[in-house]
């Protein structure tokens, strides 16, 4: 991920700039803050959704779960009454295996990118999920069917076809760094940076854009919509951060990534949590994260509830 940077600057220069590297993330941050027995709380999307709903975190509604191959035929019965739906692996990562169906008949299914699939192709996709094709470690999985998120008009100028999402890094219960991932024509309408989506660094205090990159290189305007990315302001910013910091209370993970989308009708919703969030967020923000995490560890107050932690980060004055 940092290959472009490595070719331009030395490792010592990156360290001096406060860049958190992969080894430091794994050994100094993840290993010391995330107990292994807590990983299933975020690695299993069904379990994560149940825990989130229990403490009032808004998530896409669960339609059903397919656990065995002989139940794959039942997926049309499960989605009966729903005009659109999403199929995803319970133990997937990086958006792999996610299939968004925006309209369908018994024989044809139209995806969010306007691709037309047959019944057999959707059936095979679910079978592939069960076989572990998209899961962490290739283990057997279950297929999760849930409601589709609706593209908010707030971002219509900033994302090409696909729904953008916000990634918030939470450290010891405090939001540390944030970015928004915007779909492009190149990324196929998916908010995946490795496939060509745009990453926009977001100021944690304000929800406003501070920098933007594509393929780790800076840019100012969206490559397809031509919108000025520096005008981007995430609405309902406190609500986004509330979901993220509640993820810490829900799981006990001291270092996590919360992926949040803004639904047109239901507002900010948690898509998933990640116990091993990547480091590209530093490039999107144009600054290293190591010093940010050290500041939180050494100087932020302890023993606060989520509302107090939010007030502290956002600088809300006390009465």
Structural write-up:
- By secondary structure, this protein is an alpha+beta fold.
- 30% of the residues lie in helices and 23% in strands.
- The chain folds into 2 domains: 3-41 and 152-314, 2-Layer Sandwich (D-amino Acid Aminotransferase, Chain A, domain 1); 61-146, Dna Ligase, domain 1, CATH 3.30.1490.
- The strands form 2 sheets. Strands 11-10-9-8-7-12-13 form a 7-stranded antiparallel β-sheet. The protein has a 6-stranded antiparallel β-sheet with strand order 1-6-2-3-4-5, with helices on both faces.
- The radius of gyration is 20 Å and the shape is globular.
Number of strands: 13
Q: What would you call the structural class?
A: alpha+beta
Provide the domain count: 2
- Give the radius of gyration: 20 Å
Looking at how many chains there are and whether they match, the oligomeric state comes to single chain
Distance between the amino and carboxyl termini: 45 Å
CATH superfamily of the largest domain: ATP-grasp fold, B domain
**Helix coverage percent:** 25-40%
Strand order of the largest sheet: 11-10-9-8-7-12-13
Helix and strand arrangement:
Elements: H1 3-8, H2 11-16, H3 22-33, H4 40-43, H5 45-54, E1 62-66, H6 75-78, E2 85-89, E3 99-104, E4 108-111, E5 116-118, H7 119-131, E6 143-146, E7 165-171, E8 174-182, E9 198-202, E10 209-214, E11 217-218, H8 237-251, E12 255-263, E13 267-274, H9 280-285, H10 290-299, H11 306-314
Antiparallel strand pairs: 1-6, 2-3, 2-6, 3-4, 4-5, 7-8, 7-12, 8-9, 9-10, 10-11, 12-13
Helix pairs in contact: 8-11
């Amino acid at each position: 991920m940092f290959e472009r940077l490595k070719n331009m600057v030395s490792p010592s220069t990156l360290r001096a700039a406060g860049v958190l590297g992969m080894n430091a993330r794994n050994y100094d941050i993840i290993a010391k803050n995330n107990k292994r027995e807590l990983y299933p709380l975020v690695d299993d999307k069904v379990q994560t959704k149940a825990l989130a709903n229990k403490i009032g975190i808004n998530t896409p509604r669960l339609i059903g779960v397919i656990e065995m191959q002989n139940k794959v035929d039942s997926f049309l019965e499960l989605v009966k009454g729903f005009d659109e739906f999403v199929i995803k692996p319970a133990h997937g990562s990086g958006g792999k295996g996610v299939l968004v169906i925006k309209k369908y008949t018994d024989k044809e299914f139209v995806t969010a990118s306007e691709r037309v699939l047959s019944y057999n192709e959707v059936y095979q996709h679910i079978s592939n999920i069960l076989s572990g094709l998209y899961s962490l470690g290739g283990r057997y999985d279950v297929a999760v069917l849930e409601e589709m998120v609706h593209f908010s008009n707030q971002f219509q100028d900033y994302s090409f076809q696909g729904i953008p999402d916000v990634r918030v890094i939470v450290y010891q219960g405090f939001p540390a760094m944030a970015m928004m991932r915007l779909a492009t024509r190149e990324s196929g309408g998916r908010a995946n940076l490795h496939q060509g989506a745009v990453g926009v660094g977001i100021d944690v205090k304000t929800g406003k854009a501070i920098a933007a990159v594509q393929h780790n290189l800076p840019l100012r305007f969206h490559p397809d919509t031509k919108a000025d990315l520096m005008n981007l302001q995430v609405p309902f910013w406190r609500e986004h951060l509330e979901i993220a910091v509640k993820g810490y209370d829900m799981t006990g993970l001291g270092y996590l990534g919360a992926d949040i989308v803004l639904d047109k009708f239901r507002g900010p919703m948690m898509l998933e949590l990640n116990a091993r969030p990547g480091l590209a967020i530093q490039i999107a923000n144009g600054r290293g994260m190591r010093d940010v995490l050290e500041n939180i560890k050494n100087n932020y107050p302890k023993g606060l509830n989520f509302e107090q932690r939010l007030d502290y980060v956002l600088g809300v004055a006390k009465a």
